[in-house]
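Structure tokens please, single chain.
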Amino acid sequence: MRTKYLTLISISSLILFGIVFYTIQSSMNARLLTTTERPVPRSATTTGIVSPSSTQTGITVSIEGATYIAAIQDNSSVLEAMRTLQESGEFIFSGREYPSLGFFVESVNEKYGTDGFYWILYVNGKLSGAGASQTMLKAGDAIEWRYEKGY
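Here you go.
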């Protein structure tokens, strides 16, 4: 009788542990996912132009041979520029927000980082020292996302 009781308690404990673990994982994933909108992208060979106003700055975003021009406020982040282009239907991207690290871009135009390849941020031809949410832009900056083997 005691053996059956211990077995029942062990199985119940495992099931309870599984439910708690699943709940925690689900809530963490829900908090990390941010950008999931999927507007229809234009052809990769077109150049999208969002005209700047007098208080905005024009910057370029290059992705695998396509160049997009966005109008953003001075001192906007790369992430804000990408969201501006995404809202205009120029291209799509997705990623996750990590509390201490910032936004991590996981896909651009439905091309996901796989097999050790990631989207790497370059600003004005140089590897960015910060991520998309921390890199601030000024007039004339050129953003480039390269699909490269991770470091």
